[in-house]
Here is the input.
Amino acid sequence: MEKIIDESQQGTSLVLEQKTENTRKLFIESYGCSMNFSDSEIVAAILLKEGYNTTQNVEDADLVLVNTCSIRDKAEQTVRKRLEKYNAVKRINPKMKVGVLGCMAERLKSKLLEEEKIVDLVVGPDAYKDLPNLLSEVEDGRDAINVLLSKDETYGDISPVRLNSNGVSAFVSITRGCDNMCTFCVVPFTRGRERSRDPQSILEEVNDLWSKGYKEITLLGQNVDSYLWYGGGLKKDFEKASDIQKATAVNFAHLLELCAKTQPKMRIRFSTSNPQDLTLDVIETMAKYKNICDHIHLPVQSGSNRILKEMNRLHTREEYFELIDNIRRILPTCAISHDIIAGFPTETEQDHQDTLSLMEYVKYSFGYMFTYSERPGTLAARKMVDDVPEEVKKRRLDDIVQLQRQHSEIRTRAYLNSTVEVLIERESKKSKHEWSGRTSQNTVTVFPKEHYKIGDLVNVKVTDCTSATLIGEAIDYALD
Ligand code: 5AD
Ligand code: SF4
Here is the structure.
């Protein structure tokens, strides 16, 4: 059964009632952005009430779910390879059911059932509450699919089951979808219209996390700065709404302040910021509250005005510089990171040089860098030719990566001999005698364990570093 996409579909409130005993095993795996990892925690919560406990071992599973990413072709190929692996497991355990969730489910819909014989279940990002019904169809021997997109669903009423958690940091999703329509990006098609979650439910989740011992949250959304709550629905409805609605609305700066004040000892991060939506109010709120971390992830994609326009990024290079200047003025110690795409259609050597010179200006602390991957259905795929040869894309990407490496090193070295505040998250991968944590600026820091423990906030004297990691010694606990 395939349900057609209907954006008017109202989000239904789900009463989650725990079934008597959990006897079934769910293996859930996530690819792609943090939002997918966060969504898998919602899925695990929905299925816990259906009698499923999670397992780390795919061979034991009654149900295997893979939460997928469509952002680049490579991400989809990775998932297809995983499906081959599940196929091998299914030969040993034929009763095992396999479902595809997330962006690939939404993009490919019933094609996935046709192309990947192993798949029994296809569920888009807004349809997870329908999983119990879909699973009963699968149990009756039918393939099941729901790829309805919603204009309301935020899963605000579901308390996530934290998966692979270190018990210290957690994601809290605040918006879903994206209305920006960058011409290269498949997200507006796979995750639908942008909607904001009720602030009350966000604060409840933050309080609940604090009571369970969590010390850091990351507020998540494709475009967190356009968060706007005025009672639900789409933002365009709010623009037409009454003055009362406008007076009581909560924007991202308000939400950030509410979170910072409600749990003054909780570290607060957020991601992702879109340059045209990041307001001075947000930057000033960051400056006002010490518990809001000193880091902004601010994707730019390109340094060329012509390419920015072709990408439908709604700002110029000069406006981006102005924003960077404002951040540096109001938050002098703030780390800034980026996403950049090399080889967007029609990109010339000059456009590429503009990207490099933009990077020189900002000297980002770190970044995520990609070659352009044409995504079916996007405006760029429909209207432009993917005309930058693959080897040119790779060479330009290499230039960008090399330059970023230099800048990361400069930024990291600047902390040498200073004292930084580190939240301990886990044992260092390199030594069982050392802790690993992050500074407010998001720099990974390692130091001897001594008597400290996971979840402690400590002052660390930096004595050495690699290009991206600080190495030091803890001095004492950091005062809040
Ligand atoms: N090709 C390459 N990179 C892309 N991104 C989004 N779409 C594409 C694409 N078609 C990158 C952008 C975005 C990040 C999440 O992924 O840089 O910010
Ligand atoms: Fe994609 Fe642009 Fe939305 Fe980011 S802001 S999810 S790049 S459309």
Q: What stands out?
A: The chain has three domains: 2-146, 169-413, 419-477.
